[in-house]
Amino acid sequence: MADGAGPTRRTFLTLTGGAALLGAVPVVSMRKVHATAAQQDTAIHAVVGDHPIQPGRVRLEVPPLVENGNTVPMKVFVESPMTAADHVVAVYVFNEKNPQPNIGNFYLGPRAGRAQISTRIRLADSQRLTAIAKMSDGSFWSATADVVVTLAACTEEAS
Predict the structure, then answer these.
(1) Computed over its alpha carbons, how large is the radius of gyration of the chain?
(2) 10 Å Cβ neighbour count for 68?
(3) Which residue of 2, 13, 93, 118 is most buried, as measured by CB atoms within 10 A?
(4) Kind of pairing between the strands at 140-151 and 65-68
């Protein structure tokens, strides 16, 4: 190709090397996406409507300080006899700073025996969690807990 009719070996290597370099550079950037307090309030309102939420009857246990937000133990206990006439219908858990404001919904009935939930959750950052229990009489009860997270999780975008 000495006659200049096509690309030279040096041009070919420069173009393919540049393309390989661009392929090695990550194009997608990970950024933290958090729910806002307004989104949390909207999610809670979608569950309880205009019913009042009373403090008490619910105990939310989560470590006050966690090293890694990828696996945080959480327990919710609700004071209830769990009879056909008086039982927990559902427990809802909300957060302030995860990509989605609702961590989970747990549905119970009188045959559950105890109103207790135990699971592990992911937390994007230090934040306040709120657990709300809906009782069979239509009342709502709640508890909150603050958690300090030293290594955050949930860095993906919400869909």
Answers:
(1) 25
(2) 13
(3) 93
(4) parallel
Of 79, 78, 81, the C-alpha closest to 93 is: 78
Compute the distance between CA of residue 117 and CA of residue 113 in angstroms, rounded to an integer.
12
For residue 128, CA distances in Å to 17, 37, 70, 98, 147 come to 50, 10, 16, 11, 6
Q: List, for residues 102-154, the tens digit of each pLDDT value.
A: 999 999 999 999 999 999 999 989 999 999 999 999 999 999 999 999 988 76
> What's the rounded Cα separation, in Å, for the pair 98 and 33?
7
CA nearest neighbour of 129 among 96, 155, 82, 88: 96
Counts for the chain of helices (H) and strands (E), in that order: 2, 9
Dig out the tokens for 31 from the structure: 């950024």
The structural domains of the chain, with segments of one domain joined by +, span 37-151
The one-character DSSP state at 50 is T
DSSP SS3 for 79: coil
pTM above 0.85, yes or no: no
CATH code matching the domain that covers 37-151, chosen among 1.10.10.410, 3.90.1150.10, 2.60.15.10, 2.60.40.2470:
2.60.40.2470
